[in-house]
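Sample 3 of the quickstart, ligand zinc ion:
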Amino acid sequence: MSSEKINIFDTTLRDGEQVPGCKLRKEQKLAVAEQLDFFGVDIIEAGFPISSPGDFEAVQAIAALVKNATVCGLSRAVMKDIEVAGEAVMGAKRPRIHTGIGTSDNHIKFKLNTTREDILERAVAAVKYAKSFVEDVEFYAEDAGRTDPEFLARVCEAVIKAGATVLNIPDTTGYCLPHEYGDKIAYLRDNVKGIHKATLSTHCHNDLGMATANSIAGVENGARQVECTINGIGERAGNTSLEEAVMIIKQRFGGQYHTNITTPLLKSMSILVAETMGMPVQANKAIVGANAFAHSSGIHQDGVIKHRETYEIINPADVGVDQSSIVLTARSGRAALAYRFKEIGHHLTKDELDVAYVHFLDLADRQKEVIDTDLEVLYHEKIYSMI
Ligand code: KIV
Ligand code: ZN
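Result:
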């Protein structure tokens, strides 16, 4: 069986940039977009052009700059929004309009104060209008995670007929469990007439910490596009993290699915976005966090030094991290201490290591971490005289 391509739709510059404090200037957006393109992202959601003149200009500039990826602009199912999004992405090599409307009863009743039939009509009209600007039109059924599957299927069928090329099934509120989200995608795959003409897309939020798991469940059940952001930034608790989704596909679904992402650029992409947006990455973040390849307990350190795979399922080089690190704390053992001394050029004998270890523990109990300069001092004050 040949491996199927999963398209990566990056919304760092739209859903990610909505986060308070993450707003970027046009030049910063261009720098991120250029790297995303180089990195192998298939679709860049560059912004929400109707939202402000600045965002419109940024989307337009990104459309002109990007060489390979599709450039997408968001709009509501509102004619003026669609027109402005169409104008903003027009200069792209591969332009896309992403339009949509709420489909859950909650959204229909409380947000839009209307009926299911009206939503169906507005969805179809929006897609038809977007088709008058671009060929590639993605439709989002906002709050699809809480939408009745039968109604969702009706909406999907109608917008495919109207010309939608991609169907985005957002779990807008991060409500679904992975099996529920997977079942929803499978239901659409099996029950929507004409589904073969469109690509099913996941767009999952992380309110219950399940965004990545839900996206992968979507892929396993027929979705062929994953919407995600670098470092998982996005509204509230964020979106599916690009680095997690891509590495799960690579590590666990190797022969079955693949993406176009150059994974050794993951770490530098994460740093670029964290620094540009002023949004630091938590140390224990999967794949790109500072501790993702750091080992600090004696048992783990001993295992990793003997054979890296004892405690690591990813080769750090695959995600752009130089090497695993052995962090020296009061929980570290002799093997780690000897290893770190060796790294800075001191090969200790067993007796020297015994002496060094006693002094090391004394120091480690007083400070959080023992670093190379501490080891140098320890070596010259306590070990050198033994030689
Ligand atoms: O979470 C969501 O539903 C969205 C849509 C606008 C795609 O971000
Ligand atoms: Zn979203």
